[in-house]
Design goal:
It is built from 21 helices and twelve strands. The chain is an alpha/beta fold. It has two domains: 310 residues, ABC transporter type 1, transmembrane domain (ABC transporter transmembrane region fold), CATH 1.20.1560.10; 245 residues, P-loop containing nucleotide triphosphate hydrolases (Rossmann fold), CATH 3.40.50.300. It has a six-stranded mixed sheet with strand order 6-9-10-3-11-12, with helices on both faces. Strands 2-1-4-5 form a four-stranded antiparallel sheet, covered by helices on one side. β11 and β12 form a beta hairpin. The longest helix is centred in the middle third of the chain and has 53 residues. It is elongated, with a radius of gyration of 35 Å. Bound molecules: adenosine-5'-triphosphate and magnesium ion.
Length: 580
């Protein structure tokens, strides 16, 4: 919590301090009240002085109103500080999540990141608001009441000195046990939100396969686990109030009992006993609130550490040292993309890719073919540095990718990922990611090359037609073509297509390949595909098998030398097509 406050509180420090100060005034008023009431009883009522009673009564009313005024200001400031800080934290988290690489995001898990940006930030917000409104109030009321009581009568005050440590002990035990549970609850909330998310994303498949019951059961189990932990915490906290109230009420009884003797003996007035009981009640009430505060702060600090965990993560894929613009004047002879013994291992021990070497000259096409899970997507993700190679090196236009800034690298390399993803907005907003200032002409050119111009023309609004969340208002093949067009905007030097034509019919796929080959900027192209037809025209074809290179060469060379390639060809093409 401390780290988070140090980082995000400073802009709001003035307001936080002012809010707390206003609260302090209110506390002082609250502490004065029992004294005034005592005075009223002893000298006003006792002395039959009606005007004194009225005067003091009026004073109480004025104090109450002024107190409310200060409370109002505190509430307003507390809301401003906590909402402002919450917004800042959320923005910082979102920026950080965007800065993190795929590997870091894999490690946290997307649902957990979502919970952190939403629920955890809310918990912190609540803690901050309570901190300003309550932190000063209740502990000070409790302490102030004890001091005031001791000032009235030391011996009767001993009751406080016995009750307070007893209550402290109860707290210590209950809190010690609930704090770990609060952390557990946040973790279980992650699971619930993960299942919700998976269920919603896969809702069509789940329906199609009649898996609703299974999913319902999975969700019920996770939410029961979360509920059980919450109930366990609830049980513990439920102990708190009755036991503290019991102790405090014994205290009140002791005061009334001992007070009666002392009033009889004349060493204490009735008003003072009343004040004592009032202070005791204030202590009682404040301890309840303090308990609440402890719960809120515990939750808040569990959330704060989950937030800091994200903010403190150094992105594994970081900018290299070379300045932007390094790649601008690369001569023609330099390879567009070169792998030298490159490989990558995800979490486990088995590498998903290893020992891959090839060199793709500028303006040429490299086809990559291999069965599912053979490492094709892993290979292409090393080019744009979604991940960093764990062995060997990867270079683009003669520079190691890890030496380049991510901005420079991604300006030069355009990737069409395997899963076409569009964001809600318009066609234009989705196409201009690589170049926010792209002209209509440039966008249409990209759409034409990607074979997407005809259906965009038919959409009402053309380039400004709406795109729903996830591109849900487009077909799978249309989404793919839009993501291809997006990659072509902004003159990339290397275009990577990861199985991006899988949803296109053969004729459209063929037209797309032809258009790509005759792009004016002549970018180098890496085409990943399961279809031989999509790669057989490439200058080089790389055959992947279980993460290793099974062959590299032209279609004809591979037919001669690579058994796996020949097998794939024969399974997909007629003999005369293979020969052609
Ligand atoms: N994020 C990940 N975390 C852990 N393992 C992964 C991850 N992504 C892929 N893998 C594993 O790495 C291997 C290669 O996966 P990859 O996605 O590169 O295959 P692919 O050739 O693209 O398959 P497909 O043709 O189905 O797209 C697979 O065994 C897969 O299980
Ligand atoms: Mg893949």
């Amino acid at each position: 919590m401390g780290d988070l406050l140090r980082r995000f509180l400073p802009p709001y420090r003035k307001k936080a301090v002012l809010g707390t100060a206003c609260k302090a005034v209110e506390v002082i008023f609250d502490l004065l009240t029992p004294m005034i009431v005592a005075h009223m009883i002893d000298d006003g009522v006792g002395g039959r002085n009606m005007s004194l009673v009225m005067g003091l009564g009026l004073l109480l009313v004025v104090l109450a109103f002024v107190g409310y005024g200060f409370t109002f200001v505190t509430q307003k400031l507390a809301a401003e500080v906590s909402q402002g800080m919450g917004t800042d934290i959320r923005n910082a988290l979102y920026r950080q999540v965007n800065a993190l690489g795929a590997a870091d995001v894999d490690e946290f898990g997307t649902p957990s990141l979502v919970t952190r940006v939403t629920n955890d930030v809310n918990q912190v917000q609540v803690s901050v608001a309570y901190g300003i409104r309550m932190l000063i109030r209740w502990p000070f009321i409790a302490l102030g009441s004890i001091v005031a009581a001791l000032l009235i009568d030391i011996r009767l005050g001993l009751v406080f000195l016995v009750c307070t440590p007893a209550i402290g002990a109860v707290f210590f035990v209950v809190m010690g046990r609930s704090i770990p549970l609060f952390r557990a609850i946040q973790g279980k909330l992650d699971v619930v939100s993960r299942i919700t998310r998976e269920g919603l994303e896969g809702i069509r498949v789940i329906r199609a396969f009649g898996r609703e019951d299974h999913e319902d059961a999975r969700f019920a189990h996770a939410s029961r686990e979360q509920a059980d932990t919450s109930v366990a915490v609830g049980r513990l906290s439920a102990l708190l109030n009755p036991s503290t109230f019991l102790i405090m009420n014994f205290g009140v009884v002791a005061i009334l009992w001992a007070g009666a003797y002392r009033v009889n003996a004349g060493s204490l007035t009735q008003g003072e006993v009343m004040a004592f009981v009032n202070y005791m009640t204030q202590v009682l009430v404040s301890i309840g609130y303090v308990a609440n505060l402890v719960v809120i702060f515990t939750r808040g600090s569990a959330s704060a550490s989950r937030i800091m965990e994200v903010l403190d993560t150094e992105p594994r894929v970081a900018d290299g040292a070379l300045p932007d613009g390094t790649l601008a004047g690369t001569p023609q002879g330099v390879a567009a993309v070169a792998f030298d013994g490159a490989g990558f291992t995800y979490g486990g021990t088995m590498p998903a890719l290893s020992g891959v070497s090839f060199s793709l000259p500028q303006g040429e096409v490299l086809g990559i073919i291999g069965g599912t899970g053979s490492g094709k997507s892993t290979l292409v993700s090393l080019v744009s540095r979604l991940y960093d190679a764990s062995e060997g090196t990867v270079s683009v236009l003669g520079q190691r990718v890890s030496d380049l800034s991510l901005k420079e690298l991604r300006r030069v390399v355009a990737v069409v990922p395997q899963r076409a993803s569009l964001l809600s907005g318009t066609i234009r907003s989705n196409l201009s990611w690589r170049n926010p200032n792209a002209t209509d002409e440039e966008l249409w050119r990209a759409l034409e090359c990607a074979q997407a111009d005809d259906f965009v023309r038919e959409k009402e609004g053309g380039l400004d037609a709406a795109v729903d969340i996830g591109g849900a208002n487009f077909s799978g093949g249309q989404r793919q073509r839009l993501t291809i067009a997006r990659a072509l905007v902004g003159d990339p030097r290397v275009v990577v297509l990861d199985d991006s034509a899988s949803a296109l019919d053969y004729a459209t796929d063929a037209r797309l390949r032809k258009a790509l080959a005759s792009l004016p900027g002549r970018p180098a192209i890496i085409v990943v595909s399961q279809r031989v037809a999509a790669v057989m025209g490439a200058q080089q074809i790389l055959v992947l098998d279980h993460g290793r290179m099974a062959g590299l060469g032209t279609h004809d060379e591979l037919l001669e030398s690579c058994d796996l390639y020949r097998e794939i060809c024969l399974s997909q093409l007629r003999p005369e097509e293979v020969a052609a």
